[in-house]
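User: If only I could read backbone structure tokens as easily as an amino acid sequence. Those tokens are not coordinates but codes from a learned vocabulary of shapes. Could you go through the record with me and say what the backbone is doing? Here is the record:
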Amino acid sequence: MPQLSPQLSPQLSMHSPVGDLTISSHDGHVVALDWGWARDQADDELLSRAKSQLEAYFDAARTSFALPLAPAGTDFQRRVWALMEEIPYGDTMTYGEMAAALDSSARAVGMACGANPIPLIIPCHRVLAAKGLGGYSGDGGVETKVALLRLEKVLL
């Protein structure tokens, strides 16, 4: 699994309804999706495909991503992120439901959600608190989470 810092990885930036985004890849895998515009741009087949899929997602023309991912994290974080990837477009899970499925705690799941290096593609915005939205570590915070859930037609 790639462990290279995203700053040293090829990057491609794009405009989106939730702000500028930068996709980073390493060794044929998407390793990060960050808010903001990268100074140096590299366009390769994987980054172009990721950008195209994200654009289709924001146009409500794509409900899932088909990209090779390699998020750097602990074994537990990767288990949380794998479970997040199973949450269908337009659906949600609570931190508690995820914790029960992983034999863990809601707080640990929340911490893993906040550490997700590939938000949107690994849909941490689909994880909610038992009563309310919970947090969101992406740019714009909870307002961005609400915008993404509305895009997916989740009733709030």
Summary: The CA atoms of residues 44 and 52 lie 12 Å apart. Confidence is low (pLDDT under 50) at residues 1-6.
